[in-house]
Amino acid sequence: MTQEHMTEIANFLARYLSYMLGSGVHTSRVVRNSKRIGAALGVDVSIHTSQKTATLTVTDSECLFFKTRVVDIPAFPISFEWNADLSALSWAACDEKMSLEAIERKFAEITAKPRMNPVFVLFMVSLANASFCRLFGGDIWAMLITFTATMIGFFTRQHLTKRKVNHYIVFIVSAFVASICASSSLALGIDTAEIALATSVLYLVPGVPLINGLIDITDGHIQIGISRIVNAFMLIICIAIGMSVTLMLVKDSLL
Amino acid sequence: MWPQGRIPVKMKEAFWNSIAAYNSATWIWQIAMAVVAAVLPALLWFRPKEWVKTVTKLYMAAVSLWIAFVYYMKYGAVRDYSNVMTIFWCLVALSWIYDLATRFSSFRKSGKYSAIGLAILVLPLAYPFISVSRGLEFPQITTPMIPSGVALYMLGMLMTFNRKINFFAFLLVMHWSVIAISKIAIFKIPEDALLAAACIPSMVIFFLQMLKDAGQSSFKPSGKYVKTLIYAVAVLLAGCMAVA
Hints:
The complex is a heterodimer of chains A (255) and B (244).
Chain A: H1 3-22, H2 27-40, E1 43-49, E2 53-60, E3 66-72, H3 80-95, H4 100-111, E4 115-116, H5 118-135, H6 140-162, H7 167-182, H8 184-187, H9 193-199, H10 207-218, H11 222-251
Antiparallel strand pairs in A: 1-2, 2-3
Helix pairs in contact in A: 1-2, 2-3, 3-4, 5-6, 5-9, 6-7, 6-9, 7-9, 7-11, 10-11
Chain B: H1 9-46, H2 50-75, H3 82-102, H4 114-122, H5 126-133, H6 147-160, H7 167-186, H8 193-214, E1 219-220, H9 223-243
Helix pairs in contact in B: 1-2, 2-3, 3-7, 4-6, 6-7, 6-8, 7-8, 8-9
């Protein structure tokens, strides 16, 4: 194996694992997949991950050469599709003995797939929150108010994110806007108004980072696991701040 | 579904009494603001200068603050949670001030839907007539300067001059029309059906426009599925209105 070829493998694997980590895949899966592709290409891969960066070293089987790369982890939206497709790519590389060029081509195809339509996401998130409202016992009016309150909150989030506002501020503002809109149900005297208020911010709950953090810790990736959980808790605190402002304004208490 | 029997009579009385107090004390101001509201679309239609657009946005913010502080905080204070509505209408005002600061919406005609927009613009004038036809008497009647009338006016302006709209304001008006749907049932105000009915086609038109602006080719699922979803939600809202 030439040094040049090893450099190409290291560069590709650095990109591969940064995309996986950035799209919300838990660490042990990223490590396992990267090692699998490395094994298919005849190299050993060692990886160290943190919240913002990852380091990998690629060594050839005779330990004559090694290449190390440190990459920033890009902040992509959570993508279960990338998670599944990029994992499948690692299996395909292993089973079909794909060349590096073929793997890179397939990787480019997967990452170039169109993103979710923001209008579609806006509607689906709002419908999901209205469904949560129903699950928690809300009536039809509470559901409708939750639907539109979520829509306003989520649109605010999309707009501020597009403007590159700090994401903690985005969470505080979005939680405030959604909950203040949902609190209008209190003025109508709806029996389940408080359910509408409580469920209007559920779209902000950082479920994936929380689950990934726990999986990482139980798999032994303590450092990144704690980072992810701390990050998720920060977001939960931001939701709490936004909602607390509403409750203090509207009910003079925290319910 | 709706706890009809449990709506306290006191709540309905407080609602109509606050409207009566508001109309008695502010009818002259309401007429003045309605005149300004009538002049602005005419100016935007015939002389769409930059200062007219600025004045329109300032008027939208001012009229929202009027509803927040005069209608809800002063005369609606007897109602439960009127402070919530004050905050909500401050949010509407904020959306117009933000729009003014970012100069986002253009208040320009697109050549489409202007007729629907003009029809919606006239609808708030129907409020007092519907009230009178129901046997109500001044001051206990609805007017164009109550929250739903103002929301309807905003919707009409957004629809008439829809080249590039203030989407925050539209979503807040849409939220208000959902509240209006429930108010038809709770406070027995059939006038609010005007807002609810105008909001549903507006919702379809604005979201389809938003979908087009987003550029469908670079996203999934394909546009036809998203359009179907938008129509389905519109039908759902219309169904709720029918139930109310």
